[in-house]
Structure formats: structure tokens, C-alpha cells
Amino acid sequence: MKLAHIIFVASIVLSIVSCHKSDQDDDANPVVNPTDTTTLPPVETRPKVAPNQQPVFEGQTRVPGIQTQADIQVSTFATGLNRPSGLAFMPNGNIIISERPGSIRIVTSSGSVGSTIANVPAVRAQGDGGLLDVKLDLDFASTRLVFWSYVEPSAGNTGTNCIARARLSDDETAFENVTVIYRGTSPYTGVNHNGSRMLFDNNGLLYCAFGERFDNGIRVQAQELNSSLGKIIRINKDGSAAAGNPYLNTPDARPEIYSLGHRNPQGLAFNPVTGELWESEHGPQAGDEINIINPGNNYGWPVISYGLEYNGSVVGNGTQQSGMEQPIYYWDPAIAPSGMIFYTGSLIPEWQNNLFVAALAGTHIIRLVLNNTTHRVIKEERLLSTENRRIRHLAQGSDGAIYAITDETNGRIYRIGI
Q: Which residue among the candidates 20, 193, 262, 375 is catalytic per the annotation?
């Protein structure tokens, strides 16, 4: 069923009409030409949760808005999914989908939802845990290997972050030779901030982001090198630590760690222009972040943040500390960024190399226009905001359209294209 393009346009117009309510900071009120749809007021108009916290550099938050000029069409591609959390396109155009309650299934290229695939291990589907991301081996056409991240039920009613690998049977009904290739540290009773998102690089190395499990007593492990919590790891396809990892030879450190100081990372994508690894993660009250990830760097949580604790107090030492990285971009109030992709298709040329981020609490898709020379965000747009659905993850199809999954018990896949 097609959704009229006018719905999308209306959401932009409403944002413009309400822009006078935005904060009075210089970065929130750029001088714009009201007839220029390539430079509009910032899309965020709500008051800041942390008004006393100021960005370190221009363009770190609330950049000018922008409106896509192409005649975008949004359609519902598939429905009937159960809390979908990850998706990946298969060589034949089908989509493999992970569902948080513990299933993996295939949606055909025509939008037909298939049965669950057999032999998926049990998951701890509580809080934001369960069966999380799913990825295909870069050589899937020959190996038929599928990888997924999940929370494994552990002793004492705890959960452990894991990554499994299996061969998808030729008839696509079952997984064969299911192997847990990686188990994280610190099984925990808490049910929140499990992460996670996975990504292969061109060398076949697997990156996976894990959360710090939320609670005050355990979240400090995001800063500890003997824990996998609050980390991005980089491993080989068998689960072993990748050569060249920054802490490979550090005593008492986990050799798989690639970066540290993360809260609840939900998105990973490689910038097609620079080759850099970009990441999205949830802040507390505000302070959701986009980061450029470099090996061995510390991204600050829970020592620094642009958000506030849920009791309204400052997080740790504020927004800056020597030796800790600043986010490339942040949101205040929170929008709960999840999966993300860089657009590399030709269907919509003006989107080339833009970053698209799924927003859960924000119930929209974010388009960020970048200056890849300065490594800065320069424009922001919101798509699908009138749909009012929690967007979990995104993927680009071979047709050049963007496909988005919604986090709900009757989850759907949207197609956004022309």
C-alpha cells in the first residue's frame, strides 16, 4: 500500500512552523532563507533537557535542516514481523530478518514473510535483550554462513552477550552446525543495554557493539579493559581476536576490544568516502551520540556525557575530559538512535554518502548530510515522522531504496524510494 508523498512533506512543514520554539543558542538559530529548502531551521524544536551543556564545536548539535527535493515514495513492503531487530539483503534479493523474541526468518523479494528458521538457540528476551542483529558472511553465496548476536540465558537468571554462526540449509528452512563463536564477560541479571549491532569490514573481520547493562554498579565496566561490556569488539569469523587489535598485547585486557566507553551502541556503518567506522549510541536523558570510532579510543561513558542522569544530575565529570573522545554529533532531547547506513545508491542522487539513522523514541528516520573533509554534520532531515513508529534498523536494497524495520509486535518493513 503506497503512502502519499504529501505525508512526508507535511511533517517537514510542521517542523518549520514550530521552529520558533527552539532554543535561543546561536547553533539552534542559524540565519536561513525561508524559500531555500536546502537550508532550513533545525528540525529539533523542543527545549533542551540539559540547557547548561554547550557543544564543543559548531555543528555538534542542532544543525540547519534540509528537505529532500526528489519525489519520495514510502510504501509498506511487508507486515507481520515480531519485534524485528536486524535485517540483511541476501544475494537473491530476499531479506533475512532477526526477531527479538528469538526467531530468524526470510522475507521474499515480493514481501512475503516466511516461516521461522529452525535450530536457533534459546535467547533471553527480556528488556531490550533477545535475538539482536543478523549478518551474512561476505562470501555467503559460497559458504551460506549466517551470524547473529543475542543474549544467552545464563545461570542464576542472568544473560550473556553472545555471537553465533551457522550454515543456512540449501532449502532455507534450518541452520546447520550452529556454533557460539563468542561469549562476552559478566553475565548479569539486569535486562537492559545489551546493544547490539554487527558489521563486517572488507577483510571479513566482524565488529560487534555491546552495551554496558545500564545499572550503576555494572556500567563502570565500560571503562574496564577486562570486560566486554560497553565495548566494540573486532573478531575473526571463528570468534578469535583480530590481528592488530589495540589491546592484543595489553596484560589483563580482552584482546578482542576495539574501542571502549560506550553506553548502549545500536548502530555501526562504514563511511564510503573516508572508510571510517561510525557508530550510534543511546545517551541517558539526552546526549544520544554519533561517533567516529578509532581503535583504542575511549568514548567517555560513564565519565562524560551530553545527557543527564535520570535524577537530573550531571553524568560523571560533565561533557569533556582529556583522553576521551567527543561525539561528532549529539541530540538533546533524546531520539534513541538505532541502526544506521550510509546511502550509496543511485536512485536518489542527492542522498549520496548521507548518513541515515533509525530513531526509536524519535519515531522517524534521520538523514544527516556530512562534510567529509571536516568530519562534521552540516544538515539534518527527518523522514517518516508522521508514521509514529519506532524505527529499529535500515538497509539499502539493490534497487537503491532504503528499507526500514519497525520495533513492534506487528512489525513492518517500509520501502523508501521513488
A: 193
For residue 91, give the DSSP letter.
T
User: Which of 18, 135, 51, 116 lies closest to 306 in space, CA to CA?
Assistant: 51
Burial label, 39 (beta-carbon count in 10 A; 0-12, 13-18, 19+):
middle
Q: What's the pLDDT band for 39 if we cut at 50, 70, 90?
A: confident
Rounded distance between C-alpha atoms, residue 246 and residue 368, angstroms: 30
- φ, ψ for residue 16 (rounded to 5)? -65, -45
The CATH homologous superfamily to which domain 2-417 belongs is TolB, C-terminal domain (2.120.10.30)
Cβ burial, residue 67 (10 Å; 0-12/13-18/19+): buried
Q: Can you give the residue ranges of every domain in the chain?
A: 2-417
Whether 193 is a known active-site residue: answer yes
Q: Are 328 and 292 in contact (CB under 8 A)?
A: yes
Q: Please state, in angstroms and rounded to a whole number, the distance separating the CA atoms of residues 210 and 185.
A: 11
Q: What distance in Å separates the CA atoms of residue 166 and residue 251, rounded to the nearest whole number? A: 32
3-state SS assignment for residue 221? helix
pTM: 0.91
Contact 15, 65 (CB under 8 A): yes
Taken as a whole, the chain contains a residue count of: 418
Cell 543511485, residue located: 346
Q: Which residues of 360-390 are buried (b: 16+ CB within 10 A; e: fewer)?
A: bebbbbbbbbbeeeeeebebbbbbbbbbebb
Any idea what the Cα angle at residue 206 is, between residues 359 and 79, rounded to 5°?
40
* pLDDT classification of 36: cutoffs 50, 70, 90: low
pLDDT for 238-255, tens place per residue?
999 999 999 999 999 999
